[in-house]
Fold:
Amino acid sequence: MRLFVNYTLVGVTQGLVYAAVALALVLAWRSTRILNFAQGAMAMITTYIAATLLEHSVGYWEAFIAAIAAGLVIGAVTERLVIRPVEARNPLNAVIVAIGVLIFLEALAAAIWGSVERGFPAPFSLVGYRVGGHGIELAPFDVFVIVAVLVMMALLLALFRFTALGLRMRASAFSPEVAGMLGVRVKRLLTLGWALAAAAGALAGLFVAPSVFLYPQNMDSVLIFGFTAAIIGGLESPLGALAGGLVSGLAWSYVGGYIGPSFQASGAVALLVVVLMVRPSGLFSSPQARRV
Amino acid sequence: MSGPLAIEDLSASYGPIRALNGVSFSVPEGTITAVLGANGAGKTTLLRTIMGLVHPERGAARYGEVDLTRIEVAEHVRHGVAHVPEGRGVIVELTVEENLRLGGLFRRDRAGIRQSIGEVLELFPSLAERRRRSAHTLSGGERQMLAIGRALVARPRLLLLDEPSLGLAPRVTAQIMELLRRLVAEQRLTVLLVEQNARSALSVADRAVVLALGKVVIDDTATAVGAHDSLRHHYLGY
Amino acid sequence: MAGVVAEPDPGATAPAAEAEPTAAPPGRSGPAWLRRLRLPTQPFFRHGLLAVLGGVACYLLSVQVSSFANFNIAEVAAYTVVIAGLALLVGGTGQISLGHAALMAVGAYAYADLESHNKHLPLAVGLLLATALTAAAGGIVGAAAARLRGPYLAGVTLALGLAVPQLADHYFSSDQGIPISFTPPSTVEANHWLAWICLLSALIVLFLLANLRTSRWARAFSAVRDDEIAASLAGISVARTQILGFVISAACAGLGGALLALCNLGATSGAFPISLSILLIAGVVIGGTGTLVGAVWGGILVVYGPIWLDDAVGSTTSSLGVNLPSIVFGALIVLVVIFVPNGIQGALNRLGLRVRRAARW
Structure:
């Protein structure tokens, strides 16, 4: 029983990290219909930037904000320079471009900071709370992760639902031609979408680094599970990303705990196949009639 | 921005096909001008060129100091020009109210948007009922009304409509035409209307321009065009 | 391409080359026999002739160059097989697979496992069995994925690409994998022998795929790729066509994986990471969005890209030097896709068209 509780707690925390990555993927997908394979690498770079600041005696929270700001910049720059030329073409081209960016960023990070693992601090204790004399797999840092991701989701939902900017972004995502005709500067909003996406990814990078350490490929498998989460959630809404993240995180934790770590990716595959068989467009997607 | 819309020697091609060939006419302020003609006559190309979606080879569409064909599509709203495109252009994933809000996003007086939305909903009671529902629950006629309503929220001076009767039942078409007549009378809107259904367009228009093979065949008052039997038979099909 | 076969061109015909005038335009200079020199018009014989010519050219190349170069040639041929199959899946049926290295691993481990239990297994039999097994695995993946499109299919195949090496490590209980031993005929040097086996396999596969492209199956593939609803209304079974695409590309991946295992004297999970799956897709697109000759470029890119980049910009002295080849590689991928969207073969086709047009005047 205690094992189950612990696995569940680990699953929830990890799930919210995946949700953050999924959110980043969903935001980029909604604005440009492109899957950002370089999202993990971008998050890794922003975490390295934070690490460098920390080395120069900047406080953790300042470095935290700097990482998110760096995320905004790196997302915007990538969309504007590299994705914009291929947006209108065959989606496969965008996949390859994102892959090129991934390779570029990982090698760049290795060139600048070296490929040796380094530690990354957590702002709160990583030691689990004690309940009834036993340690549980929930530490102050985990609570922080959960709260931070939920707050970020709430902020984004509020942005989309209640502000004029959010309305314009949604209109641009659903119908760029009509939105343009109504006076919306669609291309700028695509860039903004990517900027927000990378900021969400930056958050995930900061949360992951304390436990898996910081090295150029550290976000690779997180990205894959984040993908799983985004797809399960339906690629359409922050809520879907959250749900997908939780489901993926719990599956990852239960499979890893009860069966074994070598089966975690297989668990993801099984999860995907099962969910997509029942809801081919993901859990939270709205049924869209296929235009014949 | 106000005043007449002046179409000057507009020519446009799709590849080797010359869709518009030196089209010139004027839309006086505060009137409804209908552009009529058979399929392929160039009506939709004309409107799309004015709307800025197609680049003309020659010519201009002057409204006030601006040439509408030379500014970006997104700029039109800022000059008081609103479009109601063919196929409505309603964003079905958004609610009725959100679609209307979109119309008003670029008005100078942001405060007036709420009021305008209220006025539009009064104008279209069936939309008011579905205010918070997603637009994909609307019928064809209601979507057309939503598209017009959305254009109206922008408080335009010039309204461009592309085949508003397309796919609508005759009764609904009549309602929409009647609505346009009222709006023009009450707000001194200028309306340019491209229509396949010549009869209903002529019933509310002040002026009519008939196109054939990309050229203007006649540019006269709607009554004159409607009375011209051989022209009607030849170009308008009735 | 009529009448001129300059480079080793293993059995492939770029589709653009098929759109050729069948009669010589009037008033052109040059001897009549040269003008009449044309490839046979029947696809089977044309492909066969190209395959044989290509084979001869490759053999001549192979005996001229060093042993190490032969090893690289062997790897290029093996990757070409994989990329050709993947190009059929992506360009032919419009489905994406981001985990194809996993299928390569299946082929590699299948061959290695068979070989370790049957020391006297003939090479061809082992390769065929590995190919068949991987084809079956591909069928299962294809069936599971039959209703998935675009990003959903990408996600499933990506997770699969991660899952298979993990499972392989678990079941074959070491990350050393399974070793393979082979003995070439006594008169031939090992790397030359590897090169010939891989080249022969590549020629056969390209020949078969080229014939597939001109068969009626190809029409079903492109119908399904372009518009599923229209295709199914026309009576084509969409699911079956998509699964067939997976089966064929899996067979190619399995064969390529087995050949690579042969080259590396063993099957290890470390040889098939996610980054390889990703590189394969890059090879398909950059080589030439789904053309068969493009697969050759893709193979060359995957093997020689890192080598040439290392020689050109790499150095071991600084961390920048060590990583510069990859930095350049990533940047090149981005630049090529943005500026040369039809890949290397697409650019060559356009160039060839211009040259042919110029030559007519």
